[in-house]
Every structure is written in structure tokens, then in C-alpha cells.
Amino acid sequence: LESGPIPEERFDEVIAHLRDSFFADEPLNRSVSLCARGQPHRELEEHARATLRDGLSEMVLDAATDRVVGVALNGVLLPDDLSASQAKLAEMDDAKFRRIFGLLYSVNRRLDLFTKYGVDRIFECRILSVDNRYRGRGLARQLLERSIETARAAGFQLVKEDATGLFSQRAAESMGFQTVCELPYEEYTDEAGRVVFPIEAPHKSLKIMVKELR
Ligand code: ACO
Predict the structure, then answer these.
(1) If you measure from the C-alpha of residue 176 to the centroid of ligand 1, how many angstroms do you get, rounded to a whole number?
(2) Residue 214 — very low, low, confident or very high, per pLDDT cuts 50/70/90?
(3) Distance from Cα 66 to the centre of ligand 1, integer Å
(4) Interface ipTM
(5) I need a surface site. Which of 105, 111, 112, 125 has the fewest CB within 10 A?
(6) Which residue's C-alpha comes closest to atom 36 of ligand 1?
(7) SS3 for 120-150, per residue?
């Protein structure tokens, strides 16, 4: 296996990898059946491509096949981004996508990590995804480790991840991330008292996790 930054000529391949992995398997996506495996998803793909264009993302390749088998898509988060993203979200058609990103944006806005940590930009690990044939071998940890190095080299003081399931939480914990906010999914209900995201075990909560690089 080899790792490195993601060059532009790999962007389409990364999107194809995400269709087979993250789009269907990420716990929130899965709980609302956002996307069938292998299928495209316009809004998620726009989100991924915009993040790739920030030029901070990392991949792991299987050298034997030259295929992308894992990625960390990292982007820059600026103080006005969350309110702008919320406004854009309100105009989107896909109600399931709105439900997922509505939660993430509102939790992050409430937390206001910029003020809390005295920073004016945050290195955000937005999508962590490993091909299911390669999971459980430390690739997510490796991708996070490289992402932290990239963030440090680019002068960021704070790295953040919205870790939506147990495995990304464990990977982040072992790389020294701390949880600043934990929201158990069973407590997140709609007006009728129904759980909005019926997440499958062993995943239980959303954790907003950070690592300070000072
Ligand atoms: N059962 C139990 N523990 C597991 C399992 C499993 N099936 N898979 C991973 N873990 C644990 C590992 O033991 C390790 O914990 P440790 O550090 O305490 O030993 C930790 O999770 C990380 O293991 P890795 O092998 O580094 O993780 P992997 O390469 O398998 O990738 C990932 C984890 C990216 C979450 C993968 O499962 C995946 O692609 N899932 C679908 C997409 C997803 O949920 N992404 C994360 C959403 S949050 C975000 O993107 C910011």
C-alpha cells in the first residue's frame, strides 16, 4: 500500500470509490438509506469535489492494482462557511441530505469552535472512507495521521472531524483527538418524538472531535 496527496487526475476515481463505500456505508447515510451502493449522489459528489479542490486530501493506493482504497477528504472551514452552507442547504431538493447536513451544520454552529479555540480557520476532515475489503487494518488511522501532518505543514492550529460512527471515533481517539461534543442519536428526535437517525449498533452517537496542533 502507498499513501500520498490526491492529485486532480484521481478525482473521478475518488468519487467512484466513494460511491462504492462512503455513500452507502457512512452511518448517517445508511440510517436514512441515502444512496444505494455504487450509485451517484449529486449533492454528496459536489461536497466531495469542493473539498478535493482545497488540495489537502490524502489517499491510500493498493500498489499492486494502482487503485484508490482509502481517502481522507480534508477542507478548510472559515467562520462564515456554516451559515452560508445552511442557506444553500435550505434550497436543496434531497430531504435526506438536508436532514444529515442540517444536523452537522447546526451542531457546529452552536459549538463555534473558532471562538472556543481562538482560530480563524479550521482544517476539517470531512470524509473518511476505506474500501470495505481493506477495513480494520489501520488505514483510517494512517489517513488521519497524514492529514494531521498536512494540516501542521499548512500552518493550521486546529483539526476537526465530525465522527459519525464508532470506528471513525476510535481512529480519531487513537490519533489524539478529543471529543468536544457528543450527541447520542437516540436523543435526537423530531416533533413527534421519533428518532431521526435510526443508527445500527455499534454506532451510537455523533462526536465532534478536535486535535490542537499548537
Ligand atoms: N469492528 C470493531 N472495531 C473496528 C472495526 C470493526 N469492524 N473496524 C474498525 N474498527 C476499529 C479499529 O479497531 C480501530 O480502533 P483502535 O484504534 O481502538 O484499535 C479503529 O476502529 C480504526 O480502525 P482502522 O482499521 O484504522 O479503520 P478502517 O481503515 O477500517 O476505516 C472507516 C474506518 C473509515 C470508518 C471505515 O469503516 C469506513 O469507510 N466506513 C464507512 C464510511 C464511514 O463511516 N466513514 C466515517 C464517517 S465520519 C467522517 O467521515 C468524518
Answers:
(1) 15
(2) confident
(3) 22
(4) 0.97
(5) 112
(6) 130
(7) CCEEEEEEEEECHHHCCCCHHHHHHHHHHHH
